[in-house]
Design goal:
globular, 4-stranded antiparallel sheet, 4 strands, alpha+beta
């Protein structure tokens, strides 16, 4: 006798996660697992406090975004465009909840993890300037 097939729409013993789905998506709900810390990178365009040239920094951020959309690696774009101490690829390292600017943190904790070669990123404006952020790890 041949084995019975499962009725359509029913995959017995198989995960409901999509092939290639990230660890955070595999809970079946499609939501990210709660994390207490993230490993994050960013590209920061700082406003000049003397001239407050926001539009100049906004256009610099847009130029960086265009490079990312064209397939450039996040860390290469960060080295070229970021204006802070994290210029070495934009890495801020592991940061715990509550240790980042509130606007940055909200966006970062909502992002899926990704790699610098294929980043999933978000834009945010904080008191520090314009950020393009990505998350490499969650724990």
């Amino acid at each position: 006798m041949a084995p019975k097939k499962a009725p359509k729409g029913e995959d017995k013993g198989k995960s409901k996660a999509k092939p290639g789905a990230s660890k955070e998506e595999k809970g079946g709900t499609g939501k990210l697992k709660p994390a207490t810390a993230i490993n994050t990178r960013h590209i920061l365009a700082l406003p000049n406090p003397l001239t407050l040239r926001q539009c100049e920094k906004h256009s610099k951020k847009e130029e960086a975004l265009a490079k990312l959309r064209d397939g450039a690696k996040f860390d290469d774009v960060a080295r070229e465009f970021s204006e802070d101490k994290a210029r070495q690829g934009g890495s801020l390292g592991w940061k715990t909840r509550g240790s980042l600017d509130a606007a940055y943190e909200k966006a970062a904790y909502e992002l899926e993890t990704s790699t610098t070669g294929n980043p999933k990123y978000a834009e945010v404006k904080s008191g520090f300037g314009y950020h393009i952020i990505m998350v490499e790890g969650r724990r």
